[in-house]
Amino acid sequence: MYNLKKEIYFKIIFIISILSLTSAYFIEYILGYQPCNLCLIERIPYGLGILLVILYYILKKSEQFIVLLLIIIFTFSLIISFYHFGIEQGFFKESPVCKIISNSDILSKEELLKQLQVKTVSCKDVTFRVFGFSLTTLNIIISIIMLILSIKIFRKNEKFKK
């Protein structure tokens, strides 16, 4: 019975991660809303979550390590989301991460003109809302759910109780 529950939690984490990333890319590429740099960083835990769940199914022996990594990753996701929410609400100043345009050096006038034409999105600006909530607020809720699910897996596993 414990394995069934644990398996369900892993599947829920996998499905929520895929839905979260799919939604983010849909909003960006289909609906045309440009994400800020912190929004892009907030996607990383979901991609890592997908990889870790796949690794769980491949390497059953590393389960404890994978679950602990999931807990760390979604704790990081929650912290970044709270920080981003604080910037949106004016509790924190905008991070230098928000102002980075790209990692490449601008070498020519043409590249400089292209960079100037690209509209950078500020981390404090909410460009898209769902049911009145910013995507950062929804990410906080989802991160809490994912963290709770990861902790439940940790508690369900008899190997961890020793």
Give structural attributes.
mainly alpha, two-stranded antiparallel sheet, 2% strand, elongated
How do the SSEs run, as a string of H and E? Answer: HHHHEEH
- Biggest sheet statistics: 2 strands, antiparallel
Number of strands: 2
The CATH class label is Mainly Alpha
Poorly predicted regions are none
Number of helices: 5
CATH architecture: Up-down Bundle
> On the 0-100 scale, what is the average pLDDT?
81
Radius of gyration: 18 Å
Strand content: under 5%
What does this structure look like?
With 162 residues, this protein is mainly α. It has one domain: Bromodomain-like (Up-down Bundle). It is built from five helices and two strands; from the N terminus they run H-H-H-H-E-E-H. Strands 1-2 form a two-stranded antiparallel sheet. Helix 1 (2-30) packs antiparallel against helix 2. The two termini are 19 Å apart. The mean pLDDT is 81.
Write the layout of secondary structure elements.
Blueprint: H1 2-30, H2 37-58, H3 63-89, H4 109-117, E1 129-130, E2 133-134, H5 135-156
Antiparallel strand pairs: 1-2
Helix pairs in contact: 1-2, 1-5, 2-3, 3-5
How is this structure best summarized?
The chain is an all-alpha fold and 162 residues long. Helices cover 67% and strands 2% of the residues.
